Amino acid sequence: MSHYKSNLRDIFFNLFEVLGRDEVLGHGPYEDMDHDTAVAVLTEIEHLATTKLATTYADGDRHPPVYDPETKSVALPESFKRSYATMMDAGFYNLELPAELGGQPSPPSLQWAVNELNLGANPALFMYSAGPKFATVLWQNGTERDRRIAQIMIDRQWGATMVLTEPDAGSDVGAGRTRAIPQPDGSWHLEGVKRFITSGEQDMTENIVHLVLARPVGVEGAGGPGTKGLSLFIVPKWHFDHETGELTGERNGVFATNVEKKMGIKVSTTCELTFGDGAPAQGWLLGEVHDGIAQMFQVIEHARMLVGTKAIAMLSTGYLNALDYAKSRVQGADLAAAGDRTAPRVTITHHPDVRRSLMTQKAYAEGLRSLVLYTASVQDRVAMAAAEGRTDADAERLNDLLLPVVKGYGSERSWVLLGTESLQTFGGSGFLTDYPLEQYVRDAKIDTLYEGTTAIQGQDLFFRKIVKDQGRALTDLSTQISALIEAEAGNGQLKEERDLLERGLENVGEIVASMIMTLRSSAPGAPEGDVRNVYKVGLNTTRLLMAIGDVVCAWLLLRGAEVALTRLGGELSAADQAFYEGKVASARWFARTVLPKLAAEVQIAEATDLAVMDLPEAAF
Ligand code: ST9
Ligand code: FAD
């Protein structure tokens, strides 16, 4: 039986009933991807995801890749390789490729809906399959040579990696020391050790293309300190003919010198890569320009969205597994009959605390799915504008603002709830490997760590996406939220929830205002200022990240509830009746149980002082 429980009904609801994606499907660059085709694609992928892709999820965990230090190679489990071949043969990666690269253009909202299904079924599988998508970065930023390589990567379905982290350069990517030395033939030799590289070695593809940040040496105007001195190099595992793609048979000097043993996503190899130890590690400068960090952020932005989507996909399947279990597990008597020792035993769905837990899981899983798909719909605007030769700067800013929320808030809420609520619903059975929950918890933890930890997402949100943006995207978002607060839709039945949302939005405004005032007081020369006040800001960036996430999810759930209430006024099948009732219930639950807590967050933010910063380390 498949571990993966998808929720295609809710994906359709978001795409078509709430976010109106028929505006883009079948239009402009997506002329060939109309509503019916999109539904067919999602239905087909859901089938594959819940069957052939999901079946090897547990096996990959129990039989992790085996590293051979002699050959510096890795053997993945055969079952997993079969799922990988199925995924690549299905060719769904084409949905993420532009037409110029042989892709089947589809709007980002459809792509992320598809990705949720694949990531929920078998996240590592999906990450290994990202080579063709990586190729688009070469194609977008590259010279003719790089564009040719991009096409080869796709045609031959090569693997690819993003290579930033080093032992002393994790969050602080700019501390990286890997060097790139120019060669007379225009190529570069890389020297250094990178750490934690996902898919850095595997035995499923003919070749692997590493996209590596390194610091050029001896080049005027390039290679300075920090992130701005990093350039992006294309470093293949095997040398190949850049015209035909044929392997030359010669191994490049980049080797996996270790594969980490981990808490979760064990089948996803996490490699130490050593460059240029013994044999030269030859690379080519992407686009022949020294603009590495900006180029790499194109990958990072996509990967942050991917990690957030992975997180919510796992919470959703975690919840649905918990729901199934709760419906059949009989334990104890109804609380209202607890005094009667002969009272019949009931399924645990009868117990108020189990209902509290299930509704909390449902509300967050659905709220986070809406957050992902709403963000993707903003990306649709960016893509539509680009296809028309325009730039939609407002949409770009809004997408930038939402990305740390999708990644940071999405991963924190998902991983915590998977443990405290979804696994908990199973009682002791949740702790056993008989059920997928313990693996979900282990596999979801990584989402708060890679692609920038939650602390980094909070700082990105406040300093870059709010302060540097001068609050434009945040104002745009607040205006959209206010529109729902002020509207009358929902048959007058969501009044209390609207009031709660209004208060929540004000609370976020209060936290932001307090942080900005504090930040100003830390500026050099500020009257009665103190540079150390910036610590008070740093003590609240994660708080703000979570508060904004709560308000955006509440808003999106209430948008969905409005739609559901309208539908509930008409003729419905029993299944639809239950679905829409559930949508209203989860929105109400979220508004009533989550939003009131934000008032306390304001108090905490406003009362922040420097006591914890003044404390000597020894006192911790
Ligand atoms: C990792 C991988 O963890 C985990 C799983 C991988 C799975 C593979 C999945 C496959 C994905 C497929 C991808 C396909 C690609 C498709 C593409 C499609 C088109 N937004 O603030 P400054 C830039 S990997 C955009 O001064 P510091 C910007 O250029 C490891 N750009 O930073 C900026 O210049 P400017 C992940 C941003 O103090 C410049 O950086 N590791 C953004 O020098 C400097 O900015 C991490 O994520 C942004 N939000 O450095 C590291 N931010 O200002 C986390 C910065 O002039 N650490 N730029 O525009 C950080 O993010 C740090 O904050 C730091 C700080 C490194 C940026
Ligand atoms: P550190 O940066 O040392 O952070 C330690 C703690 O300090 C964290 O809690 C962090 O939030 C906090 N912290 C650090 N700096 C600050 C700050 N300035 N302000 C506030 N708090 C701070 N990297 C790649 O390049 N490519 C990959 O494919 C890749 N895949 C990975 C796969 C796995 C399984 C893992 C575990 C990691 C992977 N990484 C990859 C690396 C990953 O991106 C880093 O682990 C992550 O960015 C954090 O860096 P670090 O582990 O060095 O932690």
From TrEMBL:
Residues 431-501 form the UvrC family homology region profile domain. Gene3D superfamilies: 2.40.110.20, Butyryl-CoA Dehydrogenase, subunit A, domain 3 (1.20.140.10). Keywords: FAD, Flavoprotein, Oxidoreductase. The keyword Flavoprotein applies. The keyword Ribosomal protein does not apply. It comes from the Bacteria. InterPro entries: Acyl-CoA_dh-like_C_dom (IPR025878), Acyl-CoA_Oxase/DH_mid-dom (IPR006091), AcylCo_DH-like_C (IPR036250), AcylCo_DH/oxidase_C (IPR009075), AcylCoA_DH/oxidase_NM_dom_sf (IPR009100), Diverse_Acyl-CoA_DH (IPR052166), UvrC_RNase_H_dom (IPR001162). Its cofactor is FAD. Belongs to the acyl-CoA dehydrogenase family. This is Acyl-CoA dehydrogenase. The lineage of its organism: Bacteria, Bacillati, Actinomycetota, Actinomycetes, Propionibacteriales.
